[in-house]
Amino acid sequence: MNEAQTLTRTSSLAQADGTPRPELVSTPLLPDGFVVPASRWTPPSTRLRELLRTEPYVFGPGVYDPFGAQLVMYHGFKAVYFSGYSFAIGHLGTTDMDLYSGPEIADGARRTVAALRKFQLTMAVGDPEKGVAPRHLEIPPVIVDMDAGYGNIFNVQRTTELYVGAGVAAAHLEDQVLPKRCGHIGGKALVPVAEMVGKLRMMRAVADDLGNPDFVVIARTDGQAAVDAPEPTRGLDLAIKRGLHYLDSGIPDLLWCEFSTSDREPVVKFTTEIRKRFPDARFAFNWSSSFKWFNDPDPLTFAELGELGVGFVFITLGGQHATGHGLSTLLGAMAERQEQGYIELQRKEWASEVDVPTRSHHQFSGVPYHHLLGTAYDAARLGSDYVEKLSEERVV
Question: What is the dotted CATH code of the domain comprising 42-316?
């Protein structure tokens, strides 16, 4: 930690949820007197590994852009999942069929990681003019979809380089033939085990070469629902065999089986069989929005998944569904009641009992931060205080 990052204040008091308050330090990117959590300088992969070690499970809501990730961070979630399917819908307006490239999703992830770092600064300022206190938010590590690698091992090499350079904490790679399909679209085919292991090895090698040995590698198998694979085995037995092969390589930190239904029995069997050979194996689980969980009489809970060894739980299209629901509600109201439809939204946004950070886009987007820092850096066009100072000097 450099001189500008020296400790300015530490609080031993607990927060409202009982967790310790973060250690707070200064940064050159904030005016004097403002501070951020010291974890700002902890590598995201290191932070994720610590969470996986200490938490029963880590949950990451699925998003596809910086705005959604900032909302996840605001509400205190400990991880962000950058979903490939969500990215396909949000970036291209299409389904998840390998229609975007590795550099495209890597750039989306890069902008998202950068936005979270910036959001920490803007929230640390609050809005002094309106009496809004600073919020000291921890930056959640970002886990990103790498689909089937967008090509051969050299495509995997390039994409991993981009992810690591972007500050991504983890990525998952699946064993489908290219062009891959969404895990819940029929007709999936698998590459040979050796090809998948080669891609996993490349991911690990790139991260290590770039000085990030903590980068978390997640191996996904689509074996349960695959209709074509080099092996004669099919169904859950194939997924289990694939999972064991991948863990035999010693590379994956987490193992993910993409299940075709919300049934709990396959999940229990998969995790149990894998742990017979690898007792300490940890898993990733897609609590998929493709399943109508509200119709399930006994839906798997996150806590139950944690007990089965699942370390990372995520809902791929959670943010997409929420956006679709919220915007459709607004558009329907405005189509029916014009301006009154929007006024209804504002009443809900500004109700005293709710905490909707985006109701003041002025604060959420960081206008107070830019004003204060512009003033501190004597950027006349960004800080009105400096403009007023110049005017006074001219009068004298």
Answer: 3.20.20.60
- Report the sign of the C-alpha dihedral through residues 71, 76, 81, 82, in that order: positive
Q: Which residues pair with 173 in a beta bridge?
A: 219
Cα distances from 30 to residues 121, 258, 261, 375, in angstroms, run 7, 44, 48, 11
The three-state DSSP-derived secondary structure of the chain is CCHHHCEEECCCCECCCCCECCCEECCCCCCCCCCEEHHHHCCHHHHHHHHHHHCCCEEEEEECCHHHHHHHHHCCCCCEEECHHHHHHHHHCCCCCCCCCHHHHHHHHHHHHHHHHHHHHHHHHCEHHHCECCCCCCCCCEEEECCCCCCCHHHHHHHHHHHHHHCCCEEEEECECCCCCCCCCCCCEECCHHHHHHHHHHHHHHHHHCCCCCCEEEEEECCCCCCECCCCCCCHHHHHHHHHHHHHCCCCCEEEECCCCCCHHHHHHHHHHHHHHCCCCCEEEECCCCCCHHHCCCCCCHHHHHHCCEEEEEECCHHHHHHHHHHHHHHHHHHHHCHHHHHHHHHHHCCCCCCCHHHCHHHHCCHHHHHHHHHHCCCCCCCHHHHHHHHHHHHC
Per run of 10 residues, the mean pLDDT along the chain (length 396 residues) is 37 53 92 94 98 97 96 97 92 85 96 98 93 95 96 97 98 93 77 98 98 98 94 96 98 96 95 98 94 91 97 95 95 97 96 92 91 77 48 39
Query: For residue 381, what pLDDT is reported?
Result: 57
Check 73, 182, 191, 206 and give the catalytic one.
Answer: 182
Whether 182 is a known active-site residue: answer yes
Q: Strands 310-315 and 216-221: what pairing?
A: unpaired
pLDDT at residue 126, rounded to an integer: 93
- What per-residue confidence (pLDDT) applies to 236? 97
pTM over 0.85: yes
pLDDT of residue 94: 86
**What pLDDT score does 18 carry?**
57
Task: Tell me the domain boundaries of the chain.
Answer: 1-41, 42-316
Q: Residues near 326 by Cβ (< 8 Å), separated by ≥ 6?
A: none
